[in-house]
């Protein structure tokens, strides 16, 4: 099977791996231009919904062949049979991480689908664009903190490798689960950067100090005038944390 070798989930990522750049673009040519501009500074890329529907899965293959790590942020959620079979197919692509929504049924099905492959599963707890009011509006009786804690427990019980959560919850989840779960935090905003649609944000240094293993950064790098300089500033902030 192609792709990364099986990794101990407790293995601390090296410094450059801690920065995952979200390739939120629509075409392979836009993605190629960004990857070229970022050069050796960035070794880990995330391909999500936007690019996956625009040629991103084939592009993932070329990134892997070039020695980059790939995180497929597909946020799968469906009936168990569909999730399990989809995960088995994704496992053949050679990516390192795949996201599924952190519902117990979905996580159990995903786990069975990737059995025997090195693909690591991350459960999406509560989107970083949500706050307590958004959860109430969606019909949840609890707030973000409580829902993340509940989903972390269920992800751990399902044998997932890690979680997507915001830096705001990282400290308490790290304290509860130690190195048993990889903590991957989107919603990263260097000081002074626009939050845009993100509601639970932290700076790179704050997220690392709170216990994040990996930081997912999109627009602060990809929309910067000089994406490579922006990525290098974030790496320097991570290194100093
Ligand atoms: O809870 C979540 C889960 C995934 N994301 C994804 O991360 C990036 C963040 O991009 P920015 O431009 O840095 O805001 C994006 O691809 C999201 O789909 C998230 O933000 N929150």
Automatic annotation (TrEMBL):
E.C. code: 4.1.1.23
Domain annotation Orotidine 5'-phosphate decarboxylase: ranges: 18-234
Membrane keyword on record: no
Catalytic machinery residues: 73 (for ompdecase activity), 75 (for ompdecase activity), 75 (proton donor), 78 (for ompdecase activity)
Reactions accelerated catalytically: orotidine 5'-phosphate + H(+) = UMP + CO2
SUPFAM superfamilies: Ribulose-phoshate binding barrel
The entry's keywords: Decarboxylase, Lyase, Pyrimidine biosynthesis
Pathway note: Pyrimidine metabolism; UMP biosynthesis via de novo pathway; UMP from orotate: step 2/2
Broad enzyme group: lyase
UniProt GO molecular function: orotidine-5'-phosphate decarboxylase activity
Keyword Cell membrane among UniProt keywords: no
Gene Ontology CC, one term: cytosol
Residues engaged in binding substrate: 24, 46, 73-82, 128, 189, 198, 218-219
A biological process from GO: 'de novo' UMP biosynthetic process
Quaternary data: Homodimer.
Family indicated by similarity: Belongs to the OMP decarboxylase family. Type 1 subfamily.
Function according to Swiss-Prot or TrEMBL: Catalyzes the decarboxylation of orotidine 5'-monophosphate (OMP) to uridine 5'-monophosphate (UMP).
Protein name, entry field: Orotidine 5'-phosphate decarboxylase
């Amino acid at each position: 099977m192609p792709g990364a070798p099986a990794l101990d989930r407790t293995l601390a990522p090296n410094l450059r791996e801690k920065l995952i750049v979200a390739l939120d673009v629509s075409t392979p040519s836009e993605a190629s231009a960004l990857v070229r501009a970022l050069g050796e500074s960035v070794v880990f890329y995330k391909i999500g919904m936007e690019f996956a529907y625009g040629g991103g899965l084939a592009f993932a293959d070329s990134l892997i062949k070039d020695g980059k790590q790939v995180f497929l942020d597909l946020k799968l959620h469906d009936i168990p049979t569909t999730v399990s079979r989809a995960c088995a197919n994704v496992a053949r692509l050679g990516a390192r991480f795949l996201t599924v929504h952190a519902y117990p049924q979905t996580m159990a099905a995903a786990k069975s689908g990737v059995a025997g492959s090195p693909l690591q599963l991350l459960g999406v707890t509560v989107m970083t664009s949500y706050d307590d009011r958004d959860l109430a509006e969606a019909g949840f009786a609890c707030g973000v903190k409580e829902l993340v804690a509940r989903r972390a427990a269920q992800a751990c019980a399902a044998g997932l490798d890690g979680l997507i959560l915001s830096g705001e919850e990282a400290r308490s989840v790290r304290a509860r689960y130690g190195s048993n779960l990889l903590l991957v935090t989107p919603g990263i905003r260097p000081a002074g950067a626009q939050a845009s649609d993100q509601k639970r944000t932290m700076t790179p240094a704050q997220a690392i100090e709170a216990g994040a293993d990996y930081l997912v950064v999109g627009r602060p790098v990809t929309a910067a005038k000089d994406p490579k300089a922006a990525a290098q500033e974030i790496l320097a902030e991570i290194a100093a944390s």
